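tool=predict chain=A
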Amino acid sequence: MNKKKFILFPLLAFVLSSCLFDSDDDGLSNWLSDQGMPSSYKVQTVTVGDLNPLSAEVYRDTLPKSAWRRGVFGTANGISYDAVFDFALDSAFLDTLNSADSAISYLHLRLWDSYYNDYYLPSNFFPIKEDLKLNVSWILSEKLKKNEFDKIGDAADDSVWSKELETWKAKNSADTTLSISIVKKDSLLTLDMPKALVDDLHKNKGYRRLQLRLSAPEAKHIYRFYGAGSVNYYPQLILVAKSKKDSPKSFGPKRAVNIYSNLEDCSDCLVLHGGGIDSLLVEFPSKPILKALADFYGDEFPYTVGDSNDVRQAVVMAVVTFFRDDSKGSQEMNLPILVQAGSFLDSADTSVINWEEYKKNKARVDSIGHPNVVFYPGDSLSLQVTYGMRDFINRASDGRTFKMLMRFSNTLIFDKDTYFYDHTTDNAGTIRLANGDTIKVASGDTLQVFTSDRDYARYDFSTIKSKPATLKLWLASKRGEE
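tool=predict ok
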């Protein structure tokens, strides 16, 4: 076999250590040592261009999601988000309500203040004013025994309840139109419950369970509120018996969930939505990757002598770069969104997903920002797949393909921040945000790197099927005689 001998020049070592590891000249050697590889290993790069995927598919998780800490309802960028609450209405008050001349009811939602009071949001983001067509549907149980009533909201029953919500079968529903206006510093959203719901509650008594669903498929916004598990901030259903001697009674939900509905019909589109847990699975063929490695090394690859694991090299870094077109996306916050990458690894003969640890190239970020974001200047998206490619190369002899996952992560306020934690300002002044807006800060202000809530965005990655990707590998290798 032809064996290539590598010579690692001091300049190459410096470039690798400073660019990949944000460290000094010893950074590369230290990193190799941490990975269990001798610092004498040689590092070179291999680039695989024109890499076309075998397949690309979006997996949309539409199962109900717990709204224990925070919840949403409304519509944004092709997805409608419904909120469902599970209330336990006590016997004493419903008996009083039943005997009253009339009744009213309204729902208080405590808005997510860290979002609505976030001064990083665009200046024109608030106020939100709209006439909201709200559909309220509900399931009111028959009379319950006391022990049945006490078990409503039992944590052990959460998964059963969520499963039942996949086939929501409400006996009653009503449309109502509300005028909603939100400005910064607002903390309370009051939703008047429709007369049909009030009448239903009014005529019943005894221990009851009320499951209440809010839908607003024609809304222009997502409304964020504290979920059922946030002490002192949870939603409250308020019932008022129209009688002089009876005061209003409020009921907090035992639990709450969000249900997602896709309003788009495009089976061939590779559309990811933020806020949920959409995943894009991309599968690449092994042949062009292995051929590039064989051409580079000048011998058979993968090497199958011995235990069949080609451990003569280790992947120090692997980056897949896709073409991107932000014009096919839409979002709320007008800020860049990080894309998270995951890879499939072998674990005891079982394939598991490992989310990649993003290693930042400080020099690049300081100059032009992060490469793994969308809604940002440029036409490429670069994602690190080091763990997955390391596993793939060492097991490629069995003919497997390379698979990776993509999901939306956090919304980035400062596009050239390389530390990813909140900062305290030393001096008063003007700070530039990633979207070009500026804010004034005082000395001692705490600056967030990410927004307090994810952007409920939409992004079409369909160009992945028509535009080839590029794979770049940094390999620490020991092959043949040194």
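The chain is about 20% helix and 35% strand. The two ends are 15 Å apart (CA to CA).
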